Structures are given as C-alpha cells and as structure tokens.
Amino acid sequence: LLPVLLLFQAGHLRCSNVSYLCEQKTPWAWFSLSLVVMHIAAYLGIVFFLLPFWHAVLHVLVYYGLLGFYLGVTFMVNHMGMPPVVADEVDYLRLQISTARNIEGGWWMTALLGGLNSQIEHHLMTGMPHYNLRKAAVIVKAFCQKHGIVYHSVGFWKACGEVFQHMYDIARYAA
User: Fold this and answer.
1) pTM for the full model?
2) In angstroms, rounded to a whole number, what is the distance separating the alpha carbons of residues 139 and 82?
3) SS (H, E, C) the chain
4) What are the residue ranges in the chain where pLDDT is below 70?
C-alpha cells in the first residue's frame, strides 16, 4: 500500500504546513502563513481559470499525487531499510552514516534527486551545497574504509529492492 499512500503525501505536507503555522503566535509565522495561502490561492486560481472544472480537479489531484510519490520515493531510497541503531549507543558520525544510503548514478541521479543521492554526506554536512556533496563523498568513503565503518552506496533500483524487501520482512514479522 505504500506507493498508493505516497500519492497523498504532498497534500498531507501542505496541510501540516498550514496547521503548524496557524498554531504559531509569532509575526513571522503569520507572514509565512499569508505567503502559503497566497501561493495556494494563486495556484488554484490559475488552474481553475484556465481549465474546465473537472480538468482542473484532475490536474490538481495528479499534480499533488505525483509530487507526493516523488518526494516519498526520494526519502524511501535514502533512509528506509537501513539497519536500526540505538542513538545512545553510537556516536554522531556512525549514527548519521549508518542510517542513510547513497544512491549511485552520476549527474542524472543527482539532478533527479536534487543532490540528495549523497545522503550520507548530506547528513554529516547539512550546510554544504549539494553540488559539493559528491566531492565530499570521496573523502567520507575513504574515512569510513579506514575506520571500518559501513558506507552503504547502491544504485537506485537496488535501493528500491532493499526498501521493499525491508517492508516485506516487517509485514511477515507482523503477520
């Protein structure tokens, strides 16, 4: 069911964003909320102005469905199926490296995943621009090999297979 549930993720993120901003009592939160509401109004206004009603409804549903699926898959291949770690038992470095997976694939995978295919380096150096993460990956990988730390880097389809194998294992355990 996960791929189907991912279709609703972008809408859920949008609703959570609005809900969070409504709960805040700072002027910046209200300013941010007004920008979000203006964006939603402009997007829906343009779509419903340019398209017949049911085409506009279908466009919004397909857009948010594909966006949610895309965001969900981007997160899944980088995080799900990694071995569980107790944060109190390992240091920061090992925690960040062991809970993430890099996705191999060159420049086109970097473009597809917005630079998050270097997820390990993204976790370690959150402020680093995405275009430098691949350069940092060479250094981090060598460091991990030198210190015996598992550095998990696989192709996109292998990562998808690992994610679904993990979900299958959990489902079998729960049954």
Assistant:
1) 0.78
2) 22
3) CHHHHHCCHHHHHHHHHHHHHHHCCCHHHHHHHHHHHHHHHHHHHHHHHHCCHHHHHHHHHHHHHHHHHHHHHHHHHHHCCCCCCCHHHCCHHHHHHHCCCEEECHHHHHHHCCCCCCHHHHHHCCCCCHHHHHHHHHHHHHHHHHHCCCCCEEEHHHHHHHHHHHHHHHHHHHC
4) none
